[in-house]
Amino acid sequence: MEIKELTRAEEQVMQELWKLGKAFVKDIIEQMDEPKPAYNTVSTIIRILEAKGFVDHESFGKSHRYFAKVSKDAYKEFATGKLLSGYFDNSPRSMLSFFLQEHKLDVKETDELLRLLEKAKKK
User: Fold this and answer.
1) Integer Cα distance of 74 and 96 in angstroms
2) Which of 3, 21, 47, 104 has its Cα between 20 and 30 A from that of 27?
3) pLDDT beyond 90 at 27
4) Does domain 8-68 have CATH number 2.30.30.280?
5) Which Pfam families has this protein been placed in (predicted)?
6) Average pLDDT, stretch 88-99?
């Protein structure tokens, strides 16, 4: 299945669904920040996500409980690849350099990055 880019609203709904696992529309709304979106808005977004292949449902009478068909990791890989190609000329070094310069890391985070780089070097 080809993964498509999500709109901001679709991504917000997916973030909640990924956290919850399986959920009814009301459960998703409960998890969202204030001001809460209208039920019909979230219901429409869920149906769009279902049409895009991100979500499926199981029926309980007239109610539907939704679940993700695309994992958060799969979408993360897609979004990171899009970011890498669109803004960093497919250069992980350029992307890492940007994040290091723009997002001041504390010593603990820097040490963790160095540990990950050493681990990758050994592969």
Assistant:
1) 20
2) 3
3) yes
4) no
5) Penicillinase_R
6) 88
